[in-house]
Amino acid sequence: MSTKIVPRRSEERGHADHGWLHTFHSFSFASYADGSHEQFGCLRVINEDRVEAHTGFGAHPHREFEIFSYVVDGEISHHDSMGNEEILKRGDVQMTSAGTGIRHSEHAHGGNQVHFLQIWAMPYQRGLKPQYYNRTFTDEAKTNKLATIVAPATAPGVTDTREGSGPTPIHAQLYMHASIISSATTITHTFPKPANASSSATKAYIHVIQKSGYNPGPAKGGKVTVSADGQEVVLSEGDGAYISSEVGKELKIENVGDRVVEFVLFDVDAA
């Protein structure tokens, strides 16, 4: 199987400016519907949100999704029906395993806009008991290397507790890595063996965080090349890419621009 890298350009994402919320949708979400971008394996939502100060999402319900937030800049005030109250800041990863049902709210905390990724995955089992997790990953832990920040709850090194060290638990066949990569630096990643051991096929999705600001037009800012098995694609801030490959092959991400780039990378089972 040869590697295939298909770019998902920033300006092709769904987007909306509600005044208090400036958002992009990599996959179909809310009023944005695109049958060719519904999900990728168990990965169902990647929303890049900017919420203005003193505003936010009021209490609303969820069920049967693994929902997590990756804070890029600013702070989020989180409240939920499980009794969790948290102020999330840059470097924090907050996971809500909605299971049979929860309600939560999120607001920009303090006097500044908050910029974060909201990500949903479909669980490997329905009817789970709702749970909440919080982990922190420093910039140092992500600089010029891949830090594994989310991993299946059953994976080695994962502690299935509300707080702790190591990756944030998720009840889905998904790993999430994050990196802050300097100019002229290359990071490599070997595609892991999927949980479905009968298959050598695997999938990944990369998203380059749009730190240059809310811009519905063509991507700008930092640039990386993503290459594997003779395939190469250039991605700018806000761009993403679908990647299909085989276990053991190597993916390279090189910063070819003039500024630091932050990105997230998901390993998703092909099955």
CATH superfamily: Jelly Rolls
Q: What is the CATH fold-level name? A: Jelly Rolls
Q: What portion of residues belong to β-strands?
A: over 45%
Oligomer: single chain
Summing up helix and strand content along with how strands pair, one would put the structural category as: mainly beta
Mean of residue pLDDT? 94
The rounded distance between the terminal residues' Cα atoms is 15 Å
**Helix amount:** under 10%
Q: Residue ranges: pLDDT <50 for 5 or more in a row?
A: none
Rg on CA atoms, Å: 17 Å
Strand order of the largest sheet: 1-20-17-22-15-13-14
Q: Compute the number of helices.
A: 1
SSE order: EEEEEEEEEEEEHEEEEEEEEEE
Number of domains: 1
What can you see in these coordinates?
The protein has 271 residues and is mainly β. The chain has one domain: Jelly Rolls. Helices cover 1% and strands 51% of the residues. The chain is built from one helix and 22 strands. Strand 7 and strand 8 form a beta hairpin. It is globular and about 50 Å long. The two termini are 15 Å apart. Belongs to the pirin family. InterPro entries: Pirin, Pirin_N_dom, RmlC-like_jellyroll, RmlC_Cupin_sf. This is RmlC-like cupin.
Summarize the structure.
The chain has 271 residues and is mostly beta strands.
For this entry, give a set of tags:
7-stranded antiparallel sheet; 22 strands; Jelly Rolls; RmlC-like cupin; Pirin
Write the layout of secondary structure elements.
Layout lengths: L3 E5 L5 E4 L3 E5 L17 E9 L4 E7 L3 E8 L2 E5 L4 E4 L3 E6 L4 E7 L5 E8 L9 E6 L2 H4 L4 E6 L15 E3 L3 E8 L4 E5 L10 E8 L14 E6 L2 E6 L3 E7 L3 E6 L5 E9 L2
Parallel strand pairs: 13-14
Antiparallel strand pairs: 1-20, 2-3, 3-4, 4-11, 5-10, 6-9, 6-11, 7-8, 7-10, 9-12, 13-15, 15-22, 16-21, 17-20, 17-22, 18-19, 18-21
